[in-house]
Specification:
49% helix, alpha+beta, 14 helices, 17 strands, 7-stranded mixed beta sheet, 472 residues
Amino acid sequence: MKKAANIVTMVCALAAAVVLWIQAGPQFLKLRGGAAPLEAGDDPARYQGEYISREVAYPVADYPAEYYSGDQDRVKDYGYVVYDPERQAFFCIIEAEQSDGDYASLLYNLELAADLRATKDMTPAVVEGTLELMDQAAVEKAAAALLESEIVGMYDDFRDSEGYYEAYFGDDYGKVLAEMCQKLSQGTAQSEWYCISSGSINGLEIPQIWICIFAAALSALIALGSLISLFTRGKGKKKAAPGDLASAMDRFLYEQRGWVEEWCQYCLNRSYRSAYLAVVIWVAVLGAIGFFAKTPVQGLMVFHLPLGLLLGELTGLFILWVQKKISKPGKVLKRMGKYVRKAFPAPDAQEEFAGDFLKAGEEWTFRERKKDSMLYGRLGEKYWTAFMGTGAFTVVDVSKLERVEPETISGSVRSGKVRVAYESYVARFYYQGTALWDNADKAFSFQTVNGRDAFLALAVKKNVDGVKIRQS
């Protein structure tokens, strides 16, 4: 990756980290500090805007607090009106519809007769979230739900009937509920109502906070990695050239380092482009999902876009990690030496091959680099060789060669629901005694007709006696 790309990556990643931290950093610090317990008798005003925990023993009414956008039949959040016996006041809890089991169960049990209530689990639930002062519209909705609650209705119906009243309000829980209902019947207004949004800190849900923080942390690490790469790139230790007494194989492998490094860097640059594209695609996809789902702007900014950025960065880093593992020049050269030794098991044969390759010089070199392949070869006196970017190679023994034939291979393969056409250009090598209708003994495959024709022209120029070369 060029220096400019390093700088752009560093600036963009750092900017993303800063924006995400501004959005969720203060809430994350509160989350890590833990919820402060709101004890009986504490003044709620002191805890306004803070992340607190509170025991809930008396949820006495519920109401739909929010519907899904555009769908008034689907409740997104429920509100629960909770009675606080110590302060003789009410507060509200906002809980997601799919997570309200504890409060709904307590509310159901409080609506039962005293003898049935005694058989139920009345363990108080604990709510954690930010304590906020409710606006007038929210207070009116909660107050209306409270007056219409089943518990208040039973009190109004049974307070003049000693038997029924005792059946429902005779236990400890009933006495607290009766006290609450009596306070309501006296018409005493509560001046301030507070609300706890369960699992939310200053308007951000806890999963949203974690997504923003993970995305910010990963972006910061990417920015740091880009900064380090900016100052360390190209300063790696260069391998010393082999001396005059080195073997022909050592000198041969060292000479290939130039084009191998070039190919590895080309593959890495492609992977950087793929990584950038992965980030853009993930952000666009998640943003589009949020947009078409009519998510509010805050939801887009703290959930969909950070999640898209996080998934995109993880995908991009995986692409780079895979490519860097296979694009190490040292590993490619080591693999190349392994292939040569496999083709020529005898040490003398290896030295002969390497010496022939080196002796040919750059004059007899051919190469073809395309988007996804690399071909590099040389025409020696005894061997014609073509290496791939992976280190694999094909070698032709010129002493056995009789003819070279060009061929164009075309066809199509099914990819999903469509067929994709392909075409490749091949130089086929036939050894002495091999008929033209038989399979060729060796073949060099090119992606372009120009690449193959340039090789055939170089082979004609080599002018090997007894070898017939047909040009296209």
